[in-house]
Amino acid sequence: MAKIITDKNKIEEVLRRGAAEVIVKENLRQRLASGKKLRIKLGIDPTGSVLHLGHGVVLRKLKDFQNLGHQVIFLIGDFTARIGDPTGRSVARKPMTDQEIETNMKSYAKQAGLILDMKKVEIRYNSEWLDRLSFEELIKLASKVTYAQVAQRADFKERIRSDQDLSLQEFLYPLMVGYDSVALKADVELGGTDQKFNLLMGRQLQKKYDQEPQDIVTCPLLEGLAGGDKMSKNLDNYIALAEQPEEMYGKIMSLTDSLIVRYFFLCTDLTESEIAGIERELAGGKINPRDLKMRLAYEITKIYHGEKKAHEAQEYFVKTVQKKEAPKAITNYELRITNWRLVDLLVKVKLATSRSKARRLIEQGGVKVDGIVIKDVNKTVEATENGVLLQKGKRGFARVTKG
Questions:
Q1: Which CATH architecture has domain 331-402?
Q2: Which ranges in 123-233 belong to alpha helices (H)?
């Protein structure tokens, strides 16, 4: 049985670093100091196949509790994903199919394992209890919360005010995720600041079911690479936890300077005093932001790929971006068809995930053929025996030869 760590300084750091709000802080402080093993819950709906650094912020906080010896629960909301989380949305989210949910679920635990020790994690699915609720039990659950309470959600209030459709299933979503805490007897629940209403619903329902209400830790929402909007795959401003080392390093180097310190604080293992020193150097103009980003990129890549891969990614960036050299190791493709539309070829060699994205890359001047920028979306490329070098942006390379 894991020893519960009750060191006061470590507890205070867990309650402070990467935590936007703690409800109720003094109560949680006392529970952590008691030596009792707590059940720490994080719920994620499998609405996508990729976990990114934004998810990593709350996963790293979950890891903090795991390091103190507490029981971490990684809850996959397979049932609630069928409904769709309405949080922050002005229109209803399209429910997911069972096949979509199953596909996404398969990779979640593996990606979470890049941060958590999954051998010590309790992995649960909320279909375990929500699938079994009878209609009578659902009515009893609904009776524990008033319409006025649920309608106070900011996004619900806006949709009601503007006379937009708000389905009963969306109204039930907060009750179901709140009931997850009842079913799991959670002591603490983590989530992003945008999930506060749902987390508080868990507290409320636990009281109704005569359980001690869970304490709550909300974590900041990590902004995407350009700042402004939160990190999101839909906005293509994200860095996946399972991103390849060179791609992860290179993407971090494109981060806007204003977010350097915030990323150090939320995404790295540097101490708070080290980060404070970095912040002073940056504010005083004593260091080039590019050099800080190189360290940031190294530190983050090291967490997910190890020191060796992080060092190789740094060398790759210096050679291909700073020195503008083509890398020695380029993926080679031998193709039988010699003449290709550039749009199709970019997809074929995996420099673009779709023809529409390939066209957009070309139009924006992000594609080179043998070192020459091509902006003609109708460009045709001929594969020869000597090969054609394709380049996407500063880091993506592929060589195509006649097969």
A1: Roll (3.10)
A2: 127-130, 135-142, 147-151, 154-161, 168-184, 196-208
